[in-house]
């Protein structure tokens, strides 16, 4: 039995669907419990332990998180409850009830000054989102060192609405003729959630053969700024983007500071047998937007 937390979210949905192909999987959600997903408040320790005791998982893939940097900065208390405290409890429960915990973290644990980053490089998050995810990592490794932490970059994929992804939302931005400045400063490595889900599936298959633990990175290799993503969407959709002003300067007063380049090295993940093979960004969106 595998439990996927945050299974109604962009990544959690893809992980739930991928793992359900060959495993018994229970997906949890809090606000969006459509379909077969079960409601679970991860900030309620009693309910979480009852859920674990009832379902007896061998593996828990912890995708649930507050992932929007600006939201994290404006609600630090709520962010800590979900990103840190719930992760700490799952780590303790993984030892108590003998299941493997796979925790999804972020490239934002790094400051962007010395890319590419190996899993062993020292984190130095610039915003509260990155800090909270790194605190979650530390709590997990302290209480359950046999856990797996998988850091991933900015994600895109099939969405219920474009705002689910910081990449997909750019389609709405270019479709609106309102003039806007667009980030042409920060290098990103947009990665498809289906590729991440497949990597997690491969990790779980490997766990049947040998124990794997510690920190790993998964990322696509294509480098682009958000403005360059908009240029690609402009080509695919034949939409003029003259209303976008590319800004190659760091934001003056951002709510949550973003690092300039947090490229993740995938060498360690490949060394344990997980091939990092990601779909081409433009090719995927050409097919997706043609539907």
From TrEMBL:
GO cellular component: a single term: methionine adenosyltransferase complex
GO molecular function: methionine adenosyltransferase regulator activity
Residue ranges of every copy of the RmlD-like substrate binding domain listed in the record: 2-275
Pfam families, per database record: RmlD_sub_bind
GO biological process: S-adenosylmethionine biosynthetic process
Coiled-coil residues: none
Top-level taxonomic group: Eukaryota
Protein name as catalogued: RmlD-like substrate binding domain-containing protein
Origin species: Boothiomyces macroporosus
